Fold this sequence. Notes:
The chain is mostly helical. Helix content is 50%, strand content 12%. It contains 7 helices and 2 strands, in the order αααββαααα.
Amino acid sequence: xxxxxxxxxxxxxxxxxxxxxxxxxxxxxxxxxxxxxxxxxxxxxxxxxxxxxxxxxxxxxxxxxxxxxxxxxxxxxxxxxxxxxxxxxxxxxxxxxxxxxxxxxxxxxxxxxxxxxxxxxxxxxxxxxxxxxxxxxxxxxxxxxxxxxxxxxxxxxxxxxxxxxxxxxxxxxxxxxxxxxxxxxxxxxxxxxxxxxxxxxxxxxxxxxxxxxxxxxx
Length: 218
């Protein structure tokens, strides 16, 4: 009877030990290898690029607007072209023709000379509904939309490359970081006719309170 009691006690102790929770693993490191407080950041090439600092610069929407204006893609002239092409139907085609006539009579041997002058105006009122040039305008508009998308892709890529590099603490001490910032800045300046660098300098010298008031709420 005692042996049975001892066996029961051992089985109970064993089950309690199996059900006990295991100690939690140390969460001081994340899956990406960063510390718990997030001080380290991982760059594009997988290497730690250091902690981050706030980047002062224009928004991506403002940079895109400046790039569109520089490339002449900030307007949609197609509707104006179509309107002028249709209104052209109200302008007549004017043709002028002159003629000279010679006549004579055998009985009196008289020879007469005459001159004719004809003016004709033609209206193409069907152009008020549809003009053949509208097909050309539609093709031009499609090409402009493709160019806007291509330009937007370049601007977005260069802009966020600049933000990633410019936000690294101690970046000026790293030649690679300085080169990335300079490369992205140069590309954005080329796409905005040097507006980007001037805007960054202006924002850096603008008081933070004024900058916050000027920034639209998102």
